[in-house]
Amino acid sequence: MKKALAIILAAIMCVGLLAGCGSEPAPTTSGGDTASGDPVELTLWLPIYQFGDGISDEDFWNGKLDAFEEANNCVVNLEILSWSDYATQIYTGLLSDEGPDVVYVTETYDLIDAGLLAPLDEYLTEEDYEKYIYLDQGAYNSEGQLCTFPMMAGNPCVIFYNMDMLEAAGITELPTTWDEFMDVCLTLKEANPDVWPFISSWGATNGVSAMLAGFWPFFFQAGGTVLDEEGNLNLDSDATLEALTYINSFKENGIFDDSIVSMDDPNGKFVNGEAAIIINGTGNASTFTEAGINWQCQLGLEGPAGLATNMSVDSLAISSYCEEKELAAELIKYITSAECMDDYHTEIYGMPSLTTDATYTEPEPFQSMYDDYADVMYAVPSYEGSASFADVFQQNVQGMLMGEMTPEEVISESMAYYYDQIVA
């Protein structure tokens, strides 16, 4: 399968190269001017992050990009993409010279392995490494070159509780362990059977999203390590079995019903008062506050290996097809600068500061989480075939939650796909 994909990829890339034959790209002078004096154009792809009623992503970024365009005599063509099949959209777009010049990336292994992302090292200075806090969290190619520039670093998946619902059920203390959490869910179900005690997005539009809040927190709490020492996927493990067994117990105890496999909007259920507890990124907190939810949260639960959760390190990258890589690198630095991010974190999506000169800090209790628990927040590394594997894993977990598979079968079937279809 891997060889077949490589042949297909090579063929597609050849088509793109042939399409460019017969015409030379316009040479550029300094700054953003072409030889003709026309502004250089860059295409920027970003995903939607405005999930509330505030300014849209498109309006926010177009307002910010005006200053960059004027300073660099260029035009930035912005496209805001949905999260549906996001990894596939990005991969397909980067195969063509008609795709983005600068793009927001989540799953990076396959993109880097296919040579679709340009190395950034030559566009970065010592001052950049001093200023941009998370640069070393980016993804690297096999030659050790940095290929991604972190934009959304942090946003750990935490547990949000509707305190009015907990108090109505007589619950006065937040649970700290897996067993205590299950007891709280059962108490909530008995007190209010018309409300989801706890909900998870196993019906998300893709497996990456489903695993983000539905699996990885429990996996890390069980002591899981995503990759082995050779960089191969390490989900054929006791930690995976413990996490899946615990997830399955929500179905066995009646916390989840069959509709959990089509559930794709836990946030909406929580905001509408249809769910008492969800696990989601800290950046969603402002949406819950605006909705009038009396919420509290905690970093995570203590599983068999102790307290842990997962965090994100999503990044910006430059397409290997980009003809204006230096200008594209400057655009990335501008997007992630305090000038943009201070307002972005306030108006669009709350996240930790990216630069040493930023004025924004996370509101409590999140800032304390970064100060006190940074060592138990784990980023999920990208691995070969991660997007397609996640889709298969999600489908198998759905089978488990429908009573059609055991946790052991989820592992065996998922890993069989990984070895037979991805790394074979």
CATH superfamily of the largest domain: Periplasmic binding protein-like II
CATH C-level name of the largest domain: Alpha Beta
CATH topology of the largest domain, by name, is D-Maltodextrin-Binding Protein, domain 2
The secondary structure category is alpha/beta
- Domain count, please report it: 2
The SSE string, one letter per element, is: HEHEHEHHEEHHHHHHEHEEEEHHHEHH
**Helix fraction by DSSP (H/I, runs of at least 4):** 40-55%
The shape is: globular
- Measured on Cα atoms, how large is the radius of gyration? 22 Å
Number of strands: 11
**How many angstroms does the end-to-end distance come to?**
7 Å
Main sheet characteristics: 6 strands, mixed
Given as residue ranges, the uncertain stretches (5+ residues, pLDDT < 50) are: 1-30
| Mean of pLDDT | 90
Q: Provide a count of the helices.
A: 17
Reported CATH architecture of the largest domain? 3-Layer(aba) Sandwich
Proportion of beta-strand residues:
5-15%
Description:
This protein is an alpha/beta fold and about 425 residues long. It folds into two domains: about 1-155 and about 315-365, D-Maltodextrin-Binding Protein, domain 2 (3-Layer(aba) Sandwich), CATH 3.40.190.10; about 155-310 and about 380-420, 3-Layer(aba) Sandwich (D-Maltodextrin-Binding Protein, domain 2), CATH 3.40.190. It has helices at about 1-20, 55-70, 85-95, 110-115, 125-130, 165-170, 180-190, 205-215, 215-220, 240-250, 265-270, 285-290, 325-335, 340-345, 365-375, 385-400, 405-420; strands at about 40-45, 75-80, 100-105, 150-155, 155-160, 275-280, 295-300, 300-305, 305, 310-320, 375-380. The strands form three sheets. Strands 1, 2, 3, 4, 10 and 11 form a six-stranded mixed β-sheet that branches. The chain has a three-stranded antiparallel β-sheet with strand order 6-5-7.
